[in-house]
Design goal:
The chain contains 8 helices and 8 strands; from the N terminus they run E-H-E-H-E-H-E-H-E-H-E-H-H-E-H-E. It is of the alpha/beta class and 280 residues long. It has an 8-stranded parallel barrel, surrounded by 4 helices. The protein is globular. Helix 1 runs parallel beside helix 2, helix 3 runs parallel beside helix 4 and helix 4 crosses helix 5.
């Protein structure tokens, strides 16, 4: 596979899914050993929305010691509990709002320029319109917090197979939320997180998504489909996709958010020459 079309972007490795065979605090060093200089994380403290200063400092030290920059961080997502974010969930309102400044401060201290706010699942017995109204309120708060640290706020579409209760299961649905947040804040820093794996799982035309929404894309994440493993294990044409992203004007990084097919993360990067792994 020729991935030279992506050379101008640089890559960031998601340490919540890659190197997850190691303890969290050992993952930045493992990423550095594999040639990466930047990483991203889902919310790394489980259901703790306000982790202790010692926990936060330990994570900061792991990144700084490894010489790896954190480029993106999820706001409270509760993924360890099977949730898909907390933005639109009424019972999580106070926890989410308390988490926003904590996550923003952590992200800022490690150089991150993106916060990702997973929308949250539909809740049985709650009016979807009520959830959407709460989501907009919370996303406005998060966008302002992101703006305060010079970051963008990412809105992500997931796939309906793995996340059947998540309402944003198309690029258009996620971009609609992006536009509503930007209209409410006037900041313009809400962006679409274009995860090519999730979109492929939903059967979307990836080339059309890139061409249609290029001006809204704030970050790109990849995994092959089917399987959610490294490029080359499924059917996606990454050579073409990287070229299309470049042609569409996307100059940001590309996040590796896949499961290594062998279970050993360090062995899953053969498709990506070492000289291309560093962030730009």
């Amino acid at each position: 596979m020729d991935v030279t079309a992506a050379a101008k972007h640089g890559f960031t490795v998601n340490l919540s899914i890659l190197f997850s065979e190691l303890p969290l605090l050992e993952r930045p060093a493992a990423a550095a050993a594999a040639g990466f200089t930047a990483a991203e994380l889902w919310w790394p403290f489980g259901t703790e929305h306000e982790p202790s200063r010692a926990e936060l400092d330990a994570l900061r030290k792991a990144f700084s010691d490894a010489g790896v920059r954190l480029t993106g961080l999820n706001l409270l997502d509760d993924l360890t509990q099977g949730a898909r974010g907390t933005v639109s969930v009424p019972s999580e309102k106070e926890r989410f709002r308390a988490n926003v400044p904590v996550a923003a401060e952590l992200a800022s201290s490690l150089g991150a320029t993106a916060l990702n706010a997973l929308y949250g699942n539909r809740v049985e017995g709650v009016d979807p319109a009520e959830q959407d109204a709460l989501a907009l309120e919370n996303l406005v708060l998060a966008a302002r917090a992101a703006h305060g640290i010079g970051a963008v706020l990412l809105i992500e579409a997931l796939n309906r197979t793995e996340s059947p209760d998540y309402p944003l299961v198309s690029a258009a649905a996620a971009v609609e939320v992006v536009d509503k947040v930007n209209a409410a804040t006037g900041l313009g820093n809400a962006k679409f997180l274009c995860d090519l794996y999730h979109l492929a799982m939903n059967g979307e035309d990836l080339a059309a998504v890139i061409d249609t929404h290029a001006d809204r894309i704030g970050h790109v994440q990849i995994a092959d489909n089917p399987g959610r493993n490294e490029p080359g294990t499924g059917g996606l044409d990454f050579e073409d996709l990287f070229a299309r992203l470049s042609a569409a004007g996307y100059t940001g990084s590309i996040g590796l958010e896949y499961r290594p097919s062998t279970g050993v993360s360090a062995d899953s990067f053969g498709w990506l020459p070492r000289e291309l792994r560093a962030a730009r």
